[in-house]
Amino acid sequence: MKKIFLSLLVIGQIACAQDQKTKDTTKTEELETVFITANRTATQRKATPVAISKITAKTINETKAVAAYEIINKTPGVLMVNLGNEQHSMSIRQPMTTNAYYLYLEDGLSIRPMGVFNHNALLEINQFNLQSIEVVKGPVSSLYGPEAVGGTINLISLKPSINPEFKFGIQADQWGYKRIQAAGGATVGKVGFHIAGISSLQENGWMTYSNYKKDNLNIRIDYNINDKTRLISNTMWGKYYSDMNGSVNEAAFYNRTYKSTTDFTYRKSDALRTRLTLEHDWNEDASSYITVYHRDNKLGQNPSYGIRWSPTIKPTTAKGEVNSNNFKSYGAIGQHTQKFDFLNTKIVGGALYDYSPVTYWSYLLELKANLNPGAPGKQTVDYYEILAERLDVKLANYTADIFNTAGYAQLSFNPIEKLIVTAGARYDNMKVDYNNAIDNSTGTKIYDKPTFKAGVNYNPVQFAGVYGNYSQGFAPPGITSIFRTKPGTGGTTGKPAEFYYNLEPATFNNYEIGGWLSHLEGKLNFDYAVYYMEGKNELLSVRLPDNSTDYRSVGETRHKGVEFGGNYKLLSNQLNIRLGGTVAEHTFIDFKVSDNPMDVLQNLDGKEMPAAPRWSGNSEISYYPNWIPQFRTSLEWQSVGNYYQDQINTVKYAGYDIFNFRAGYEWKGIEIYGNIINITDKLYAYNVSKGNTASSQATYTAAAPRTFMIGLQYNFSLKK
């Protein structure tokens, strides 16, 4: 990576940072912003019948985030859960979950193929290469396909600048984290380019066994063939390795004993994504593009969450696993947009083909559990150690060829003045040809479904509007769930291996109304959404006493809530007040857990879903004093309400409220900044979970103590 940054230092003519340019030109009022993600084309907020938010380049630049969750959590209705070292789960119109109900896009193209969801996909993102982030809340499967259910996050990359530009920075905190980053670009004749790289390193942190290293490089080249035709190349390369310290028990959490129970668990990722897009404007009313792409991803881990231990069955023994999930993708997507004068009609249509061969294996680890003192059945583990690596005992071992094909279309028109009607449909077909080496079975599974949406926008006055929509969501089970050996079968159990071949796709029906307001010449902005979403066959992970997971996908769930966000500028735009949050409820309506009449737990009917806070929000006050130009400071409040730790609703975690402070000053291209995360040094956990039995121990994903981060960045420009 040192060579990468040295090469960036000599890119063309040294120039000013892209984010400095956008600081002056980007509107911060998201309600006046043009969105791309909700309709696959540039569309104003008043013509978008969904709940959508945009995080601008200005916000991204001022946040100076170590990890993506610090930026994305500024979106109302979104709680991105930090699992350490940029690992994460998500909560958008769903509980905090790792299930495949979110779609992560990079410039409109999915980071993963359908069927190979990974909840940690955003750890591969280069934060120094972001122009903006668009977040759509609720299902958009009719445009983007399976997994676009709870929410869709589209990370939009920086484009080549007209003038040569360059920026370089370093940042670090007192817990051993440091990052170096550089980006630059220019346009010469018909060719524009932009290159951005980061290298992050964590050593000797506040929690034992928590080191990680991440390197990312993004390269974009634009060739303007003529004034109507463009050829765009994007390439992303990333390498990541992290110790996986996992969670701590209740006593260790409250004593602030941040000691990992392992020194052997890890996660590593090698990712390459490249794409080539040809865009053509036929005339003012018609445009088309076609993109061909390739993905190559290798993900290996010895996961801390995969350790299975029971305090009552065999308290000094445990099991773990090592697994590897690798895939390549070869695909193409084409789209055409056509406008007509009749009723101001616009039609968007497209098709996708994706071929992704996948290999996956997982084998058993035999572990010794060294216990802390405690009464029988109440002990906790001090540390685990590996007794044997059982490469001969496979928990999963399969290859699969995934063929994803889809076609979609969307229509919008104005039947009367101030009323916009939008309707869309998509058909997805996911075919999986598999070879399961454990039971020597081969076969084909097909998941296909048409999905629809319909919405209206009514804008009676220039400064306010309302909308309503109905949308469907669709999410087939991830293939890693299908070919996982069921607990108590296979391996050393003496019973034939059983698998989850009968898992059903999850389907959702979403109903929502919302509105927006922009008043006082854009100084006051407010938007809201009220939604009601019904789910069927959601994938439910039933946590067993030994911490192993059993899967169910039969039943019904209900998700309902209110999301709101507002922004108010005053004192001649020196003071900005932003508020946002959601009040939600997520409930099992009809969910059978067991068919065995001897089991105590038969169903979860009427229970609240675990890890589902009824309240979460993020608000901020920012100050830009006129008497100190280029100075900024802000105070942020992150709030998460209480929620049940277990599926049977016996114990809650109280949630947390924390405050973060940020400040920065730029002088002649030199920017110095500092962030204080968790100002009050509050003891809190990002997530707390517990099994359904009385002997289950709660586990805490501990958050960092008060953290001071400082940074220095150089932005320089050579204007033509």
TrEMBL record:
Keywords linked to the UniProt accession: Cell outer membrane, Ion transport, Iron, Iron transport, Membrane, Receptor, TonB box, Transmembrane, Transmembrane beta strand, Transport
Entry annotated with the keyword Ligase: no
Compartments where found: Cell outer membrane
The keyword Magnesium is assigned to this record: no
Record-linked Pfam families: Plug, TonB_dep_Rec_b-barrel
Superkingdom of origin: Bacteria
SUPFAM superfamilies listed in its UniProt record: Porins
TonB-dependent receptor plug domain span: 46-152
Gene3D superfamilies: TonB-dependent receptor, beta-barrel domain (2.40.170.20), TonB-dependent receptor, plug domain (2.170.130.10)
Protein name: TonB-dependent receptor
